[in-house]
Amino acid sequence: MQFWMNLVLVLQLLSALVMIGLVLVQHGKGADMGASFGSGASGSLFGATGSSNFLSRSTAVCATVFFVSTLAMAYLANHRSGAGSKDTILDKATPVAIAASGAAAIPGAPVAPVAGAASEVAPK
């Protein structure tokens, strides 16, 4: 189970880093305005139209892989195999005896003996 969790975590990290890189490489819709004044900022590696299609599709694929790996990690974290996998935290909790007087809630207050508890008997 731990192997699958690590594998999905690595897949998620790689897809996140690739998606960040693809988003940073893409140019916005307003980048063509700079080209009209002679700066030449609209030129790209894959051509004017090919880059937006290729980069946007690659970003969509990376986003899909990222979300699927996130769902897989959530599923693996909640459905661990083992002997006590059906127990919840509430089932494992042990009950705590509470003093009847409520003095235990006051810091520094003397603790009153609880009814039914063994107490010291003074010799007569």
TrEMBL record:
Keywords: Cell membrane, Membrane, Protein transport, Translocation, Transmembrane, Transmembrane helix, Transport
Membrane topology classification: Multi-pass membrane protein
Signal sequence coordinates: none
Top-level taxon of the source organism: Bacteria
InterPro entries in the record: SecG
Membrane-spanning intervals of the chain: 54-76
One Pfam match: SecG
Subcellular location: Cell membrane
Function: Involved in protein export. Participates in an early event of protein translocation.
Family named by the database record: Belongs to the SecG family.
Official protein name in the record: Protein-export membrane protein SecG
Lineage of producing organism: Bacteria, Pseudomonadati, Pseudomonadota, Betaproteobacteria, Burkholderiales
